[in-house]
Amino acid sequence: MINKEFCNIDNFSSHLFWDMNKSNLDFEKSKSQIIYHVVEYGVMTDWLLIQKIYPKEEIKAVVTNLRTLDKVTLSYLSHFFQIDKTQFRCYTTSQSAQSFWNSDTH
Questions:
Q1: What's the pLDDT tens digit per position in 87-98?
Q2: How far is Cα 48 from Cα 11, in angstroms, rounded to an integer?
């Protein structure tokens, strides 16, 4: 259950939702989008705010199912939630998808 006391999109960094219509964001329906934008593009104050809004287990459920996370964010979240990186969908996806630029065949 979300804590509605802190549910004001204007409390977040202004750059976070530049690609979305902020007035259409619903903290329940847009939970995955909001959490993704905070963990990938937010600053520490955004991260602390998201923890006040959503329970830790809900954040964990969202981030472990994201398709992409940068390596630093993945390491931070792995440490924060005390779970192995292999428990993240993005980790297993990135391991199976070999990039042309990272392959040994060129």
A1: 999 987 665 555
A2: 11
